[in-house]
Design brief:
about 80 residues, alpha/beta, 3-stranded parallel β-sheet, 3 strands, globular
Amino acid sequence: MKISIITPVYNREDCISRCIESVAIQAEGVEHWIVNDGSTDATLSIVRQFADKYPHIHLLTYECNAGVGACLLYTSDAA
């Protein structure tokens, strides 16, 4: 069984690395969908660095903040 973890994120450059690293060590077969919800800080840049390094990370992004519900719907359509 494949497990998908969805992480909506907005302006969390302070903790997104820890979140991504925590998911990465959990188990094989986990895919991590990260939705950047229009962040204006370095969050998107940090997530892109991880996505380039780890094939299980999928990055989706909104240009402006749309809210958690929109992020979850966006991810369910993409997955």
